[in-house]
Amino acid sequence: MFDVLLTEREIELKYKLREFVKDIPPSFLRKMDQDEIQYPTDYIKSLADANYLGLRFDPEFGGKGMGWVAEVTAIEEIGVLGPALGCLYSLPSIVGEAIQRFGNHNQKKKYLEKIIKGKIYCAEALTEPRGGSDFFGATCTAEKQGDRFILNGQKRFVVGSEGADVFLVYAKTDSESKDPRLSISTFLVERKFGVETKHVYGLMGSRGGGTGRLVFENVEIPEENLIGNINQGGEIFNQMMIPERMTSAAGAIGSARAGIEVATRYSTRRKAFGRPIQKFQAVSFKIADAMTKLDAARGLLYATAKQIDAHNGITTGIIRRMVSESKKFCTDSAWEIINHAMQIMGGIGYTNVYPVERLLRDIRLMSIWTGTNEIMSLLIQHEYFKEFLQTPDEKRVRDVENDAVGAEFTEEKVFE
Ligand SMILES: Cc1cc2nc3c(=O)[nH]c(=O)nc-3n(C[C@H](O)[C@H](O)[C@H](O)COP(=O)(O)OP(=O)(O)OC[C@H]3O[C@@H](n4cnc5c(N)ncnc54)[C@H](O)[C@@H]3O)c2cc1C
Q1: What confidence tens digit (pLDDT) does each residue in 346-359 have?
Q2: Is the CB of 240 under 6 A from ligand 1?
Q3: Best residue among 88, 133, 186 to mutate for probing ligand 1, ranked by most atoms within 8 Å of CB
Q4: Architecture of the domain whose range is 237-391
Q5: Which CATH number fits domain 2-121: 3.40.1550.10, 3.40.50.970, 1.10.540.10, 3.40.1170.60?
Q6: How far is CA 410 from the centre of its chain?
Q7: What Å distances lie between residue 94 and 59, 165, 174, 266, CA to CA?
Q8: Mind listing the pLDDT tens digit for each residue in 388-401?
Q9: What's the pTM?
């Protein structure tokens, strides 16, 4: 029903991606979940070969020059495969955003084009062992020495720490700065510069993406690998909220759709008390709730995508709020929808005979990564209060406080 919001080109892309997803063999997903694959380079290569990477980027570097609406449509389809494969599909979009917007021509040629064409694999290294939510508290340092920066420190939970060739790394370049937002820079760090993968994590779900801890010990980064200007990392991070959070939101919708479809089909076949369980309201109303949440989440996601496209992809207060709302609402809803799917299926849903238990394990991650949903709430309320308090009274539609029957009892309006 959302095709009505899409252009013909976007619809065509969506159904091509759907075919791509259908052709992925189940054995591949099973191997990912059983940790038999550490990092699926063939999968990323096949997406690149089909020209599905870098949808939003400049055609000069292999992109398609499309917008966020196209991208969320594509990621929802890939999200049916689960968050690990959704994330690996999204990383070129996330890392690519920094290069496309802040990088120079050489960086686009050397990195962006190769990432889009599947010649090199990329990852984003932001989170540190001492914490991920407090981005500006970063302790990794990059010290300028002549024509290079010397990188020291660690990053944790990096998807692609096993497997990626190049990392987008944030590090402190001005520890004296009074404003932490002006103390961090962003670099493209090749593995071969001396990046070490120290630990690959055992995960509850979303397996197979090579999620690990990176160690940088006097890693030499040539100065031409600085993205944008020195100490511009805060601004870059602010812009990166869009791809990080929109890709999570869109992927969650796809995974939730996959889960509820399995449960819906099951409910039409499984019988209890002599009739299909679909006929019990307790079951069919769960499907109603799930579909309402799914459509509401997708509606918010598409509105956000359209809003970003209308601002040429550049973040603003309203975009920050909508992107955070989308990430929070889509991922929370996906968790609830897949929970409903499991409940509808009873005991068999809890076993590995059906994929709902994997989807539930997988989806749990989504309210934690790319900024926890508590951090999303922090941003949403911050932006809304700002927006609200900055709107002059005359611009509000109506002073509804005066509509109360007792509005004139002003002595009852006590605030302190
Ligand atoms: C499987 C996996 C893959 C990941 N992939 C990547 C990746 O590729 N690259 C990358 O850089 N990172 C990645 N992450 C890291 C992820 O983004 C962080 O785990 C996340 O941002 C939270 O950081 P943290 O784990 O350090 O938790 P903390 O920051 O320590 O937070 C702990 C708890 O405190 C709460 N909290 C913290 N501060 C506040 C506050 N101000 N207000 C309210 N609540 C607060 C949080 O919401 C959370 O509940 C991944 C994580 C996992 C588990």
Answers
A1: 999 999 999 999 99
A2: no
A3: 133
A4: Up-down Bundle (1.20)
A5: 1.10.540.10
A6: 48
A7: 17, 15, 25, 37
A8: 999 888 888 788 99
A9: 0.97
